[in-house]
Structure formats: C-alpha cells, structure tokens
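Notes to self after the Tuesday call (sharing in case useful).
The group wants a holo model before anyone commits to mutagenesis around the pocket. I volunteered. Ligand is FNR. Logging inputs and output together so the record is complete.
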Amino acid sequence: MRLRDCFNFHDFRELARRRVPGPIFNYIDGGADDEVTLRRNTTGFEQCDLVPSILRGVETVDISVSVMGQKLAMPFYCSPTALQRLFHHQGERAVAAAAAKFGTMFGVSSLGTVSMEELRKKYETPQVYQFYFHKDRGLNRDMLQRAKQAGVDVMMLTVDSITGGNRERDLRTGFAIPFKLTPGGMLQFAIGRYFTEMLDPSMKWDDVAEMVRAWNGQFCLKGIMSVSDAKRAAEIGCTGIILSNHGGRQLDGSRAAFDQLAEIVDAVGDRIDVMMDGGIQRGSHVLKALSLGAKAVGVGRFYLFALAAAGQAGVERALGLMKAEIERDMKLMGCSTIKQLTRSNLRFR
Ligand code: FNR
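Result:
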C-alpha cells in the first residue's frame, strides 16, 4: 500500500497503521473509556441526509469562508494536535506547509514540537495557537505575549481538558506494569504528567475573561458544548467557539459536536463565530455542519493519519481530496457558494 492508493480517511488510517509503531498509531486513533463518543462523532453525520437542488448553474463553486477575521480558501482547517513530530519527522512543518498550500488555517498545539515563531515566519496562512491554561500564571502571561509577538492570528483556549481523559489503549500499550520504556510508555507518562501537574484545574470564567482582555484580538474557546457556556463565551468577548469533545478523547459519553450544533447556533450564532470539530471524514460531513450553521469545521485525525503515513505529501493529498469532495458535493447539491447551504437542505431521519 502506497500514498497513491489512499483515497479517503480509512485508507490514510490503514497506511498509518502499517507505517508507525502500534503505540503511536493507537495514541492517534484512540479515545476515552469505551470510545462511545469517538464513534458517535462520525456516525452522527449518518443520521442526517442532504437534500440536493438541481439545475442551478454550478459551473464554478466558491468554497471560501471568513471566520474569526480570517479568510480561508476552504471551509475546514487543521485543528491543533500535540506532538506531531512523533508521528512523522516533518511534524508541524508538514501540516503548516500543506495548510498554506491550500489557503487554510492550521493550529499549533501547546504540546507542539516545532516553535510557533518558526512556523509563523515560514508559512503564510492563518495560524492558531492552542493554549492550555497552566498553574503558573506567569507562564501563561509569557506564552500569550510570545504568541502575540510571533504574529499568531487566533488564540484558541482548550477548555475540555481540565484533567486528562482515560485513554485505555495508551495504558495498555504503554504501561505494562509497572512502566515500560516504549515510545507509548514515555508518551503516556509525559502527557499524563503534563495534565496532572502543569495544568490548572481551578481555571474559571474570570481567568478566561482576563486572558481575552490581555490578548485583545481573535480569541476562541475550544470544547464548548452547552448553550449557557456558549452565551458566557460571547459575553466575555470571545470572537469564536468550537464545539468539540476533543475527538472523543476526554469525556466519554459526552455529546457529539454535530448533534449539539443547531442548538448552539440558534443561541449565539448571530453574536459569535460557531465552529465544530470531531469525526469529520468526508466532504459531505463538512457540508452538513455548514448547513446547520457552522462557519468552518476542524479536522484532526483526518490529516494526522495522512501525516503519519506520508509526511507533507500525505497531508497535501488528504487536504486535496477533502477539497475536491467538498467542491464536487457542492455541485451535486446545486450550490455555488457556502452561504447557499442552509437547514432547508437537511433532513434528520
Ligand atoms: C488532539 N486534539 C488536541 N486538541 C487540543 O486542543 N490540543 C492538543 O494538543 C490536541 N492534541 C491531539 C492529539 C491527537 C493525536 C488527536 C487525535 C487530537 C484534539 C483535536 O484538536 C480535535 O479536537 C479532534 O482531533 C477532532 O476530532 P477528529 O477530527 O480527530 O475526529
């Protein structure tokens, strides 16, 4: 199996499975507890059908969107993910280069393995910095300042990881009693300690409001799920929210973002940019989320498996395939701009 044999998410996943060590594959692939939320993230899209319109003149389609002050050539972006150089030596550089090539946004994780400054200098495309709130307030202030100075376009505070999720696959691959010195074991050890020792579980709305003021720019919260939290985010001056359950890696049994999307868009969609991530594997998934009112969607594993399988060439192929799917599906839907996608072209079963 080669990169040219990959045509969809499942193919990239399979190629990654063959090419990276088992513990690393399972770190990317896995979710929390019984992985119910992880599965629902994708199957949720199957409970909803697209209703196409015909004969509307779709020789050209424009799939660009504006979100959080950024113009994206496509309605999906690369969500921030940790430790990308562990999956492929090109790591974040490959993802940033591919995102820039396709004119979309990419996120750099707090647990990134290439500096945000280097990425900002080399790749001209909207860049997000994903923030985890640390116990050390001085460190938080310094990191915010660093991101500002680097020229990061969007600050994204992840709020669904107040403690680490229970990822049993990682425990199994990494922690054969007492502690196995394998890549998986070290990974689990490093990340487990990061969440329990460095992150601040006492973080509250006032802390975030202070961050929003200090940043004084595009600021979004990743991991919002309830209407009241979405309203609160708007009240404290956030410019965006991302409905997300962290790819099913945190609270298992929690709701899928797609299932919760309409409720949130109805409540705050006129005040704040609503995005979502989780489970997106197809262009049709993107169209369904946009039809419900998302301004853009994030993908995680969709580009991560491609990265693990084949570095920058892999990520470029994955983004290119997704873009082509979106354009093709737009035409088949009879839509030439993203604005034409509305709830009237959706039916839930
Ligand atoms: C993530 N995600 C994540 N999110 C975040 O805010 N900071 C991080 O460091 C990471 N790290 C990370 C590592 C890996 C291996 C995965 C799979 C995910 C979550 C990510 O940004 C996004 O929310 C989900 O990946 C979306 O779900 P899908 O597209 O993977 O189904």
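Two things stood out.
The chain has one domain: 3-334.
Confidence is low (pLDDT under 50) at residues 175-179.
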